[in-house]
From TrEMBL:
<dbReference type="InterPro" id="IPR046341">
    <property type="entry name" value="SET_dom_sf"/>
</dbReference>
<dbReference type="InterPro" id="IPR003616">
    <property type="entry name" value="Post-SET_dom"/>
</dbReference>
<dbReference type="InterPro" id="IPR053201">
    <property type="entry name" value="Flavunoidine_N-MTase"/>
</dbReference>
<feature type="domain" description="SET">
    <location>
        <begin position="10"/>
        <end position="111"/>
    </location>
</feature>
<feature type="domain" description="Post-SET">
    <location>
        <begin position="119"/>
        <end position="135"/>
    </location>
</feature>
<keyword id="KW-0489">Methyltransferase</keyword>
<dbReference type="InterPro" id="IPR001214">
    <property type="entry name" value="SET_dom"/>
</dbReference>
<keyword id="KW-0949">S-adenosyl-L-methionine</keyword>
<dbReference type="Pfam" id="PF00856">
    <property type="entry name" value="SET"/>
</dbReference>
<keyword id="KW-0808">Transferase</keyword>
<dbReference type="GO" id="GO:0032259">
    <property type="term" value="P:methylation"/>
</dbReference>
<dbReference type="GO" id="GO:0008168">
    <property type="term" value="F:methyltransferase activity"/>
</dbReference>
<protein>
    <recommendedName>
        <fullName>Post-SET domain-containing protein</fullName>
    </recommendedName>
</protein>
Amino acid sequence: MADPYTPSHPEFVVEFHEGDFRSFLRTRRAFAGGEILVHLTNATRSPQTYSTVQCGREPEDNVQFNSDFVFVNHSCEPNVVFDLSSPDAREWHIRALKDIEVGSSVTYFYPSTEWHMDQAFDCQCGTEGCLGKIQGARYLKREELMKYWVSPWISELIRERDTEIERR
């Protein structure tokens, strides 16, 4: 018999569902907008896969969270950011973008950290502003990204890409 599931953080629980990419992280308490949900102390450097998060501008700059936060899914109207902008990894955290009610699914905007995703997908978030195909910030216009919090390396790469396009 398999061991029973134990959440990695007491304020969250994974809701497991059959099928690929159907499980998600749910809150067990409310969070105020701007509040840090968790510091990402278990993050380790890892090659890029569908479950890593980009932590810098180079394709090899990726981390694996080694916790239930691997179950934070994408939304085009996210309620958290993965703030990996500090050069000190001990300062990396997940922060609420807005008030989050008890029992809410925790979601973030994948292109806020990802320049080019290892595994693109058709978004199923169902929000009014859904972008459809999610494949990384590289494939979005600056205007599409301006309504989101994005990591500093994403801002730099967008600026470089757009400058190169303007030169042509």
